[in-house]
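Human: We require from you a protein record containing the residue sequence and its fold in token form, and nothing else.

Assistant:
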Amino acid sequence: MQSFDNSERNTEPGAGADPATAAEPAAAGSPHRWRALWLLGVAQLMLIVDVTVVAVALPAMQADLGLDRAGLAWVASIYALVFGGLMLLGGKAADILGPRRVVLAGLALFTAASMLAGLAAGPEVLLIARTLQGIGAAAMSPAALSVIARTFTGSELSRALGVWSALGGAGAALGVLLGGVLTAGPGWPWVFYVNVPVGLVLLVCLARWIRPLPGSGGRLDAAGAALVTAATAAVVYGLVSAGDFGWVSAQTLLPVAAGLIGYLLFWQRIRRAVTPLVDPAMLRRRPVLRGLGLIFVATALMISVFFLGSFVLQNLHGFTALETGLSFLPVALGTILGSNLAGRVLPSWGIRTVSVTGLLIAGAGLAAAAGIFSMTVLIAATSVAGFGIGAVFVAAAGSLFSVVQPQEAGVASGVLSTFHEFGAAAGVSAVSSIAAGLLIPQFEVFAAGYWFAAAVAAGACLAALAWPREKAAGAVSG
């Protein structure tokens, strides 16, 4: 696919050709491609919303189902753990079977599991339903991004990635708002029931408007899939635990160490397997590594904004959960605007310029939130940060897909989505550790978390500036 760094042709080992040749030629002329993009974006939005929509409903669930503290934690985290752990497997399945088939199967499972979760009369059924939701999401999300990468070309691809990133980036804020509205209204089961009509409509429309895309065929490396799934789940679990127990606790270090060992074994596996889950050469490409780094940082910053903001608004300013969700709408709108604008300028500006600009804007917004004691400034500053983070989301996807071939699009999407989950888990655990007194209603406690996030954005900006320019035929660009 095309390098967005203004180069004539990327010569990175394993790099793809121009998007006009990397995507299937018939895809560019598909009359329903933009309609399908928006539908896939809404489906992705639904998956992201389900990460945060449960948070506001947990007290009501506890009262109705008799959940203990551990049960509450698992209801909130099991979906994200399964979602993140199985994403690479879902992406590889999309490459082998064809992404359209996997999108529809994953969406159908997610919709059915949502109905089961709403009907749950006890904690066991609810946890099973949340696990099934995670499996469906892990299949659908990377497969949907693979459809986009194989359907759009050239400048259209960057615009499509902007739409995708905008809708996904707004999901966390909309989840908090939707959770408050539904829990306060018809009740907590509706945080799950609402997925059912939306999912059914999406299934019908996507089955009609996504054209069949061929799979590569072949066999799935079951051993490699088991290794990477277990390793990813262990690392995500360890990072989540760091927020509760600290970075040097056994609850954090042991799962992370087990996950790292699992990744070492997985690396050995993919180097020797006849049909590896991931081609090791793809993971060595510099644009791929840059994209993974950017998505990790962008997601960590975004989740930090919502996590810290929720405590500031509720514990310091006395907002209700619903009022907090409404206050996050400007952040969601900023993310949407930043993603869409970045998608339009990415082909002309290049990945480095877009990522550096986005990180600078995000860092400035976070620093303003940390340094000024004002609720109005906090909402405005975090909205500015959301604008910059939205641009970084697009730069991350653009960098990765600039060197990915169509037959790799699914697994590449899975890798990108996995680092998205890593970023979310790391962001929450880091800022909760920095702002150790989150329940103390003092601005200085929260400011430390915002300063830390601003420093991360500044460091990532310097790293983006120092990243080597991609080599092109007869030219160097960045």
DSSP finds 20 helices and two strands in the chain. The longest strand covers residues 470-472.
